[in-house]
Amino acid sequence: MDNKILKIKSIQDLESVQHEDRWLIESIWLDQGIGILVAPPKSNKTWLGLEMALSITTGTPFLGQYPVPRAKRVLFLNAEDRESIQKERLDMMMRGRGIPKNDNLGILTASDRLLLDTKQGVEELRRVISSYKADLLILDPWVRLNSATSENDARAVAEVLHTLRSIRDDLKCGILLVHHASKDSANKRAGDRIRGSSEFFAWAETIIGLNKNKDGIITMGIEHRSASSVQAVPIILKSDSDTASLLTAQMNPASTIQADASPSIDDKILNAVQSRVTPTKFETLLFLVQSEDELRSVLYRLLKSKSLRYTVRGYLRGDCQ
Question: Which parts of the chain fold into alpha helices (H)?
């Protein structure tokens, strides 16, 4: 067994990679890459993670624009949302894309939270990646996947990130961490918006940054350590009660801003509620908003104005008899 840590190789002996094998998503995510998706609240970061997962696992363009050279296997761990919410989002996105279900996407679930700063959590992570033969692991979000590690504790954060890098190196599986942006960082570059220790920035080979301006326009920027960056691409989440699509959009007042501003959230809810005998459930409407609290607020407003009425089976239009 060779226990030497350092080895000497000539230039000719260094590993090389063909261009088509370099990317999981052209210009966006490198094969076996490690990095961070950083975004403020209510900026569609989980939707973007799902868009990446569906693109990679089906070999279809990311955001309708960036090619995926070949389909690969992805594991997705969402530590915030219930399984029913995750399933509904995925179903909506697959219907929006017109793609069938596939065996390349695995959704990780657990009775207890997976903790990255525990031996058991790391061993379990290695086990599932190895057994699934995953090419990419998406962990959403960092804050829910640690027992006591403060995101501001540089030493503790560095230990967890070193462990994740070792998993990447050993199992040849890329890792994307979804993390929150720091407050008042809207005008900063993506790498400077990562909340917590600077160890996050030092660890990441790629940083995907989402930003939301005062007009509600969301833009995506990419910083690569070993490739050209991608600057300020506007994206739009188009959704109704049955489908959802995340796409790039041209940054101009005639298209993007008007498309984002109309219809209002109240109109979206009213359009989604069936004007017939079948009530619409709370869980179905949840995918039109960013949080349960926002939906409750909208529903309260619509119920108070009698635009909606409530039954034990769900919600009906106020004009539905």
Answer: 19-22, 45-58, 83-97, 119-132, 154-171, 199-203, 258-261, 265-272, 282-285, 292-304
Question: pLDDT by residue (tens digit) across 225-272?
Answer: 988 888 888 998 888 878 888 888 743 333 443 434 445 777 777 777
Q: Looking at the 3D structure of the chain, how many domains does it have?
A: 2
Q: Which residues of 262-292 are buried (b: 16+ CB within 10 A; e: fewer)?
A: eeeeeebbbebbbeeeebbeeebbbbbbeee
- Helix (H/G/I), strand (E/B), else coil: 1: coil
Structural domain harbouring 80: 19-258
Residue 289 falls inside a structural domain: yes
Same domain flag for 88 and 170? yes
Q: Are 303 and 311 in contact (CB under 8 A)?
A: no
Do 115 and 146 contact (CB within 8 A), yes or no?
Answer: yes
**pLDDT digit string, tens, across residues 69-116:** 999 999 999 988 889 999 999 999 999 888 888 889 999 987 567 889
Q: How far is the C-alpha of 13 from the C-alpha of 253, rounded, in Å?
A: 53
